[in-house]
TrEMBL record:
Top-level taxon in the UniProt lineage: Archaea
PANTHER family: EXPORTED PROTEIN-RELATED, FLAVODOXIN-LIKE DOMAIN-CONTAINING PROTEIN
Organism: Methanoculleus oceani
Protein's recorded name: ArsR family transcriptional regulator
Residue ranges annotated for the Flavodoxin-like domain, each copy included: 3-158
One Pfam family cited in the UniProt record for this chain: Flavodoxin_4
Length: 165
């Protein structure tokens, strides 16, 4: 089975987690870039209000075809308790997500608040079968034992299914 790990990262924390999941599962990485190009201050002054309104960013890649994968992982930083506008757009841009197993994760400086619930609902609305959600703090992203809870959810989805025809 194959896994696609889709993520947006501005400061690098979400990227670190996505890379660890890919290394542990053999998954493919797709980094979503927000074409707004926020500065650190801009993330808070412009990005956070857009996240609270659940706006969609202009992103690259503009379309993400996951039809060739068995499972999808989606990761986001938490901005004002929400997924980033880039991740909102990435979920909207998914092609072939219907019926796929999915796992969501977020990275944050503190509590994730409703970010995981929002991502779970967005993917479920697109027809995905969300199997789990993990929140990691900025301190935990560099600790393999903390990321293992996420890898533990994804690894069974990436395991080859023997005996299937």
């Amino acid at each position: 089975m194959s896994v696609c790990i889709i993520y947006h990262s501005e400061t690098g924390n979400t990227r670190i987690v996505a890379e660890q999941v890919a290394a542990a599962t053999g998954g493919d990485l797709i980094e979503v870039k927000d074409l707004a190009g926020y500065s650190k201050v801009g993330m808070y002054l412009k990005g956070a209000p857009r996240a609270m309104r659940r706006e969609l960013a202009a992103i690259e890649p503009a379309a993400i075809d996951v039809s060739g994968y068995d499972a999808v992982v989606v990761g986001t930083p938490v901005w004002a308790g929400n997924p980033t506008p880039a991740v909102n757009a990435a979920v909207a841009a998914l092609k072939g997500i219907e019926g796929k197993a999915a796992v969501v994760f977020c990275t944050s400086g503190g509590a994730p608040r409703k970010a995981l619930d929002t991502m779970t609902a967005m993917l479920a609305d697109r027809g995905a079968d969300v199997r789990g959600a993990v929140a990691l703090t900025a301190r935990e992203v560099r600790k393999p034992e903390a990321v293992e809870s996420l890898v533990g959810l994804v690894r069974p989805l990436a395991a080859p299914s023997y005996g299937s025809t």
